[in-house]
Amino acid sequence: MQSSHQTALETKHAVLDKRIAQENQRPLPDAMLIAELKKQKLRVKEEITRL
């Protein structure tokens, strides 16, 4: 059974994934922003894995 916390984390992970994809589509993507978003996404994934 999935908890609401896990569902929220999975939603946050998907949102971060979308933001990374959107930033990569820009004519001049911000590499620093992409790196930070990827770090956040990894932290969320690690937390999901621990659950």
Automatic annotation (TrEMBL):
Source organism, top-level taxon: Bacteria
InterPro entries: DUF465, DUF465_sf
Gene3D superfamilies with a match to the protein in the record: 6.10.280.50
Protein name: DUF465 domain-containing protein
Any Pfam family the entry gives: DUF465
Gene source species: Sphingomonas lenta
